[in-house]
Amino acid sequence: MVGGFGSGQHGGTVTAESTASCVLSIRSLTPLFQKGRCLTGSIRFKGKGLPKTGFLVVVTVDLTNEWDCFVELIHKTRDHQEGDRIVTGRVELTSTTPTFGGCRWWFLCPRTGGRTTQLFLPNGGWHFWGRQAYRLGYACQREDRFSRLQRRAAALNRQLGGEGGSTWDIPPAKPKWMRWRTYERK
Q: Is residue 89 part of a domain?
């Protein structure tokens, strides 16, 4: 029998979730985004695979020139062979105007040049780059059919007010705010 339980691709590239200990999000830097100013701060990443003291990154956001906005990142390498070598990286910034006004900031990946809201620094990496530059996939892209169905069942359980378990004998009670028609459909 071909295509049975557990068949399909296994392994593959590193996932974005597995490198989640050093992910720089544009949202985490928004307090430093003040037009016409150059501000410096630091971020300490903590988590699995990092030293107990954490991983320190010094961040400088320069918005003094509206045509040359950038973020400068200074940190030690995460490559154990290189030791405590200091890496300085510059990431260009761009902005777009959403439909209902305001300003949305984006990183321009130093490697691919594409817009992104998150930069990753996986183990052994030297620079903060976008997900596509490091060829990071998502964990859900590696799920087999059974795991995918379990994840969807857990999400449905949470929508119905349950605790998110993927199996249940009796569906959770209807949430007070949900209409009966919606509850029965789900």
A: yes
Residue for token pair 């720089």: 24
Q: Hey, what amino acid is at 19?
A: T
Classify residue 55: in a domain, yes or no. Answer: yes
For residue 74, report the phi and psi dihedrals to the nearest 5 degrees.
-120, 125
* Residue 25 near residue 117, CB atoms below 8 Å: yes
Distance of CA 8 to the CA centre of its chain: 26
Identify the residue whose tokens are 């400068």: 72
| Claim to verify: residue 31 and residue 104 sit in the same structural domain | yes
User: Residues 29-82: pLDDT tens digits?
Assistant: 988 888 899 999 998 888 777 777 778 899 999 999 989 999 999 998 876 676
163 located within any domain: yes
Which residue, 53, 56, 49, 48, is CA-closest to 24?
56
Residue 115 covered by a domain? yes
